[in-house]
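Quick one: structure tokens for this chain, please?
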Amino acid sequence: MQDQRLVKLFEEASRRGYTRRQIMERAAAMGLSIPALSVAMAGAAAAQGSPAAGATNPFGVDAAAPLDVVIFKGGYGDDYAKYVNTMYSALYPESQIAYQGIQRLGEQLQPRFIDGSPPDVIDNSGAGNLDTAALIAEGQLATLADVLAAPAYDSEGMTVGETLSQGTQDTGVFNGEQYYLNLVQFVTGIWYSSSFMTERGYTYPQTWQEMLDLSAELKGSGVAPWATTGVYPQYAQNFVFDQLLWKLNPQALVDIDNLAEDAWRAPEVEAVLEALSQLGSNEYLLDGWEGLTHTESQAEWLQGRAAFLPCGSWLENEMTGLVPEGFDMVVSPVPPLEGSQVPFEGIFSGGGEVFIVPAEGANVAGGKEWLRLLLSKEAGRAFAEATKSLTVVQGAADGLDLGTAFQSVQQAIEAAGTNTFISRYSGWYKDLQDEAKNAMASLLQGQIEIAEYIDTAQEMADQVREDDAIPKYERSL
């Protein structure tokens, strides 16, 4: 009996990366004889050689060092992060974890960077987050290539990077260095109630003109065609404009990302703006949208006051408790304009929910180890179950039935195949993103013309390009 328990213990220790002390503590909890365990451990070491120093503790974590974790508590909540805390505590029971789940991280954490006492690991997401590009330029972030190269927590024989979906970590690379890691494999597109569409006899539009035609029909029936947020106009900017532009001509969006000269004056940009502006000029947007936050606009949509909503795959979890029974929300791509180079199935999908490790954190090794645990199948499955969203860990959600939204995201990724993309300028150049999204709000409200939008965005792009103090980045198709 004791031999079987020893085998079970050694398998558990190998899987979870226990230290010798943790093995001894676990053995005591299982009622094993410590002398017998010591003999067995000595015999195993003699027969197989001691495990490599980095195999169970690849970053050399001080088991007793405190760990400071700060998470953006937004659309995905923070239960998943608390789960990772328990995993970390199981490996390092002497470590005390200081934990916070907060919003608007920039306001609260910037002072800690200034005084040299940042947290050890941060989920830098949500509105008002830290300027990642600025932190990189200031040397404030640790590089994370070693996390991707480290042994995966629960995928034997694989590195962390080998367990992640291809391309999901690309946005975290700046000038060849990996500075942040993404947790979520997200999709952004147009959400709607499949039951509503079926009951009305509608099918989701395959072209932008079909979308405008259906919007006119919906408006005539007393239902607002679209809901969105005016307080956070990046939803319309990045989830609709950027996707429409990419589908029409991918190079036009790459040129914007790369700060190419007169990129915002490309004819494709004007064509997309003319198409998108019709939502405002034809009054296809929900009355009062200008003053709604993202959650307020989503609540209006869930109450059936609008048919379509641009958002990301965090939507269902963000609105937990407010989704009517039988609503059956699903996501589809933004319908393309006539003459688009990317087919209808193309969709914005990539890695999101940005995690960083500050270079001046008191426990950098611990922060990296926390990320290694976060990017495990065990934590990925816990995340999916808690949020009904996919992580970047391949296979973590296999076999889970989590409803129509979760299923539609998986189907959208599968249907898109290689036709996935995500714009980069919003993460690289905060000032440019701010000008573009605010101009989008003004355009949809009829406060400015298309030419003024273009001038505003192009002038800011020029300022950013000519400012030697701002690091520049490039991408290709």
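The domain at 186-349+422-466 is CATH 3.40.190.10 (D-Maltodextrin-Binding Protein; domain 2).
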